[in-house]
Amino acid sequence: MEFLEIPERTSGKRTYGLTSVIDLGTPIEELRNILNDFSHIIDIAKIGIGTAYITPNFQNKVNLYKKHNIKVYCGGTFFEKCYYQNKIPEYATYLHKLGIEWIEVSSGTLDIPIEERLNLIHLLKKDFHVIAEVGSKDASKEMTISEWKEEIQLLLDAGCKYVITEGRDSGTSGIYEKNGKIKSCLISELLEDIDSQKIIFEAPTPKHQMYFINEIGPNVNLGNVKMNDVLVLEAQRCGLRCETFYLEDQICKLPL
């Protein structure tokens, strides 16, 4: 029985309000139990770093995600390893054989020029839904706000379905300072010119997630969510945690 007034959430086959989990080696039986209970609040699964290449019975894991209508793709580090070794055609064949329809193009470890990434997207979007990532995993590499905006817009214009803002699974680079503090000025500037429904903000901790929910709303796209935090995140989105307690009041006061 539902009786509380809570923020309205997107549902079903969502195009925004996405929860993208990071799978860093979840055993398949454990995953099966998690998805039996929580698949309705998981939209995307990123098989983190390069673990897909060495995961036992990886096909079974891909099939399990797809059975629950969850989009699955391999993390950008795997893509960059293939790029570094000139194996992108082999990588595409590998994904096709697994039935994976999504691919990430990133430059988090390698410094792949934006022009080269755009060329790759042009080729890959013929066969895949492309997600691109902006930002470096090296916290010492800073991008200006204008560079962030320009890259994100170029990637969207090139045909990417979504653009991810780098944050790592630790929340210590990209849109975060080394100490984990969110670069709030950067986020505010991005939201001025770019449709937030097309951005997936990497937010690996509840603290990071709460910031984006309060800043953008319950239907913000969030990535690098830990598997065990999925239900807690949904509670936050619904105003059922102290830090998002008054969320529905804030939404009601927004101008039409």
From TrEMBL:
Origin superkingdom: Bacteria
InterPro entries the record matches: Aldolase_TIM, ComA_synth, ComA_synth_sf
Pfam families: ComA
Residue ranges crossing the lipid bilayer per the database entry: none
Name of the protein in its database record: Phosphosulfolactate synthase
UniProt source species: Lederbergia citrea
Record PANTHER family: PROTEIN HEAT-STRESS-ASSOCIATED 32, PTHR48413
Family: Belongs to the phosphosulfolactate synthase family.
